[in-house]
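Incident log, structure service

09:12 report received: a user says their structure output differs between two submissions of the same chain.
09:20 pulled the input from the user's history:
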Amino acid sequence: MGRVLDDAKSCNTDFLYYSGNFCPYCTALKRLLKSKGFTFTEINFDDERSDVRYEVVSETGHRTVPVVIDNRGDMPIFIGGFDETNRYLR
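09:34 re-ran on a clean worker, output below:
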């Protein structure tokens, strides 16, 4: 994971996620992380260059937003989207 790993290493938060405008699952994810007391960094695909989305999809295989990375351990872990993160944090 080149792009994702670089982004994860550059933020000092528990989670990193990639989002898009008008995404209800991104809003729900933000609420979930806040309710559990986690810190997070959001990178909005709509605010970035178009190649950022392409790189993240290429590295993770996840084509929808949010794309969630657990950044708490030694190495970042790709979780998936909102549903996967909700199950992961139970």
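09:41 both user submissions now match this output. Likely a transient worker issue. Closing.
09:42 reviewer note: The chain has four helices and four strands. The two ends are 26 Å apart (CA to CA).
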